[in-house]
Design goal:
With 378 residues, the chain is of the alpha/beta class. Helix content is 56%, strand content 11%.
């Protein structure tokens, strides 16, 4: 199992650093990575014998701007890791550290902690009640934590820990305990956290691909608007086929679709139904029949052409996403055809009409592309 990452959060003075030292072992070699630009807010502790890393949110002061700086440092680290393709960088589990001697403050403390890490919704949580010197206080503290988390609609694992020997007088002292229980619980919950992180990472990557794909669609829309503005008959969208073929191949590359013989047939189907199919012809016919559009034929054709490509591009992004996720394949031709045809329904005509009614003669292809993408990429 790969090493997971544990985010350690809690107010200053709660005993985070002492807990980290107790888990790692005071005499064990540690590697501390001070991250660029975040050295005062975030440190990652790694021990060769420990099956997980500990990420300490240094200077996490709840109730102040510092808490957002600390969590912002975590998010910055994760963002940079995603950009580098580092799949080992993700928050897989959270240790909420609360002071066992301040149980009256638990509700507010946990509320603030939950707000600080609100973005990690699927991550397992362990509440480490530090400074649990009194056995009699354990049940009261645990009840207070459960009550506070009930309002957050979460059910964390609760472990009370003492991280160092505390001497009260010559004959009374307490020894460290339940550190191993915390480690065991972390290992037990880590697979769940790793699985959630993989799903989160996949979603992040899919979002990035969608942004890139929509940029490609926007470029194709501009090219289509230029072609559409040429003063030739625009009976159907056949003149857009070359642009659409390039667009679909580019989108397939973004989503890692294997370009075999089946893929070629799949692309031909998408182009056919998106450019010269019955749905496409019906949409163009309906648009041409719209009364009262005070635009020159070239402007109308440019806008219609741009919208046709945008509709095909956005529907194809959805299709390729489903294929990339393994939910569909290029063999699902009938399903893909329905998606493309649905993209040219009455809502498509409404969008085109909206652009036609707001556009003016002389508008160039780039402006048309911007207007079209604002409507079709929502």
């Amino acid at each position: 199992m790969p090493k997971g990452n544990v985010l350690v959060v809690g107010n200053s003075g709660v005993g985070k650093s002492t807990l980290i030292n107790a888990v790692l072992g005071q005499n064990k070699a540690m590697v501390v990575f001070g991250l660029k630009g975040t050295t005062q807010r975030l440190k990652i502790y790694v021990d060769s014998e420990l099956p997980f890393r500990l990420i300490d949110t240094v200077a996490l002061e709840l109730g102040s701007l510092k808490k957002w700086e600390a969590i912002g440092a975590v998010k910055k680290w994760l963002k940079e890791a995603v950009q580098k393709g580092d799949t080992n960088a993700a928050i897989n589990l959270i240790w909420f550290c609360v002071d066992g001697t301040s149980s009256k403050l638990f509700p507010k403390t946990i509320q603030n902690l939950a707000k600080a890490v609100a973005g990690f919704t699927d991550v397992p949580i362990i509440v480490a009640i530090t400074k649990s010197y009194s056995v009699s206080d354990y049940f009261e503290n645990a009840y207070a934590v459960r009550d506070a988390f009930a309002k957050q609609k979460k059910l964390p694992r609760i472990i009370s820990v003492v991280t160092e020997i505390i001497k009260f007088d010559d004959n009374i002292y307490t020894s460290p305990y339940d550190i191993t229980e915390l480690i065991d619980a972390t290992n037990e919950l880590m697979p769940q956290g790793l699985q959630a992180a993989q799903a989160k990472m996949a979603a992040i990557k899919l979002t990035r691909k969608r942004v890139i794909a929509q940029g490609v669609v926007g470029t194709a829309v501009t090219a289509g608007a230029v072609i559409g503005a040429v003063p030739i008959p625009f009976a159907d969208a056949a003149i857009l086929v070359p642009v659409e073929v390039v667009l679909l191949n580019s989108l397939a590359t973004i989503y890692g679709i294997n370009k075999n013989d089946e893929f070629k047939k799949f692309i031909e189907m998408l182009v056919t139904y998106g450019a010269v199919g019955l749905a496409a012809k019906a949409a163009i016919g309906a648009i041409k029949a719209i009364p009262g559009v005070g635009l020159a034929a070239s402007a109308v054709n440019a806008i219609v052409a741009g919208c046709m490509i945008a509709a095909l591009g956005e529907s194809s992004i959805f299709i390729f996403e489903q294929i990339a996720l393994g939910k569909k394949s290029i063999k699902d031709i009938a399903w893909a055809r329905e998606i493309v045809e649905a993209a040219l329904d009455n809502k498509f005509i409404e969008k085109v009409t909206k652009i036609l009614c707001s556009a003016k003669d002389g508008v160039d292809a780039k402006i048309i592309s911007k207007m079209v993408m604002e409507l079709f990429s929502k």
